[in-house]
Amino acid sequence: MCVAVPSVITVENLTKHYRNPASGSRAALRGLTLDVPAGEIFGFLGPNGAGKTTTIKLLLGLISPTAGHGTMLGYPLGSVNARRHVGFLPESPYFYEYLRGEELLDYYGRLFGLVHHVRRERNESLLKLVGLWDARRLAVRKYSRGMLQRLGLAQALINDPDLVILDEPAGGLDPIGRREMRDILLHLRDRGKTVFLSSHILAEVETVCDRVAILHRGELVAGGRMTDLLSEGREMELTVHGVNGALSAHLGGMPGVEIHHGTDVTVVILPEHALVYQAIEIVRASGGQVVSLGAKRERLEDLFVKLVGGPNGEGQG
Amino acid sequence: MSSPIVVIAQQAMREASRRRTLPALVIFGCGIILSSAFLSFFQLGVEIKFFKDIAMTVIFLFGTVATLVIVSTQLSGEIESRTIYNVLSKPIRRWELVVGKFAGAAVAIGLAIAPMVAILTFFIYTDHGGSELEAVKGAYLLWLAFTVLSAVALGIASVATSTVTAALTILVFVVSYLKGAVTTYLDLISAHPVVAYFGQALYYLLPNFENFNTRTAVVHDELVPWAYLGRTTLYAAALVCLFLYVGIQLFEEREF
């Protein structure tokens, strides 16, 4: 039995044109139709200028659509009722520099109408969650870029939102910070929250997202479940240690085989399962060692480049 | 649980107090008034009048500067520093942001001129130099003028940068004071009906800030009638509503 998951965000034919006195009208978004199911981490991808931030601004009502419509949490886009249940982290967040970290969170909590004791509890738990508890009394102007990003995440969660919209949340974070951010996103999903994640860091998206949409020049070029988009093909990936010239020549002689030499190991891409035993036999006979063998899975980066990364950004999508 | 307007107003007041310009203006203004209290000692026979004249002028000048400093950065500063994204993504309406900013600025300006008014009334009381109540009435009318100026500035700030807001607000303020002379000059240079209509529109649309100036009455111990105070309060309220309404309409249409 298939149970329909309710959509948290639904947009249909969403279009945005910016007027420019010098160059006339410029289309930032062209007829975007999108459904974001509840309780998932949704990756929103695209190169610079693809229309990701424009979409987020339309969702939040910071700008008005030229055409199209949609709902967020069942309310019209940008409505106050929708924003009551949404947390938002803008790209490179900016805050009041004269406030201290805890004062800033308290102010945003008050804008959500949270009562004093709830604000106090959330401030403490969120500042501890993002690792800023010790810096809570420090003026925001003294925060580093990474600390500002952490503070931005804390303020996005102050209302315990049902939907969290994050625009490049890993910007400015060090590797440990990125890992912590990833853990927080996964924890939010485990609690039934929906995360709308706009990011350039494809490895991060691939790790945490259940579903992605790829935008290019204002148009949706791909979308769906990660497992469907990055389906395993017929190709096999054989990693070999101790490859010499003769072995390399032997393997290269097999039909349709690709060889990628690394510093320590060599990766052999076999076009068919049927070639696996033959390749292993060649490696064994030539004194090489098989390190690993598995189905070659397409990476999100490969798909992304295929769709949007051709010459002059002309993808195949 | 406070209304968003109250929360935004309190934040605007906190911003005004934490920026160093406003406390510096207050200290400087109070310093000048205190200095004039001792300088007036040399104005034999007219000491207290000299002091009241100086004090009212300082309150007017520093209040005007404080208004420009506070209000020109309230809304446009929020847009320029991009903090607006974090605010407008919260469950508040745009008109609540404008009204909250206005309310916060009006209270902050009142608090900024309060120490100067306190010094003025203290010296009037100790020198038996007239009615302290009339001085407070005069200061209240000046504060009304500052609230009108705040509404003008917020109206401009809804579509302009903080620098342009400050410049245009000063222009409106100056032209409003000189509007009688400007309309007379327009009549003189052209008899064209369009120019005449423009002059009339300018005359009626711009606030008449002279209505809020009772400095002469305070200096010479003349009474400021309560009825005048009431009428001027209504006049200020009407102007504030008009300029805030225009500002809100423009801000509602703005894209970020």
Structure description:
The complex is a heterodimer of chains A (317) and B (256). By secondary structure, chain A is of the alpha/beta class. Chain A contains 11 helices and 14 strands. Chain A has 2 domains: 7-229, P-loop containing nucleotide triphosphate hydrolases (Rossmann fold, 3-Layer(aba) Sandwich), CATH 3.40.50.300; 232-297, YebC, transcriptional regulation domain (Alpha-Beta Plaits, 2-Layer Sandwich), CATH 3.30.70.980. In chain A, 33% of the residues lie in helices and 31% in strands. In chain A, the strands form 3 sheets. Chain A has a 6-stranded mixed β-sheet with strand order 6-7-8-3-9-10, with helices on both faces. Chain A has a 4-stranded antiparallel β-sheet with strand order 2-1-4-5. In chain A, strands 12-13-11-14 form a 4-stranded antiparallel β-sheet. The mean pLDDT of chain A is 87. Chain B is mainly alpha-helical and 256 residues long. Chain B has one domain (4-253). Chain B has 11 helices and no strands. Chain B has helices spanning 4-18, 21-39, 47-80, 84-88, 94-126, 132-157, 162-177, 179-189, 193-205, 215-219, 226-253. The model of chain B has no long low-confidence stretch (mean pLDDT 88). The A-B interface holds A 57, 60-64, 80-81, 83-84, 86, 88, 90, 93-96, 98-99, 107-108, 110-115, 155 and B 1-2, 4, 7-8, 11, 14-15, 18-19, 81-83, 85-93, 255-256.
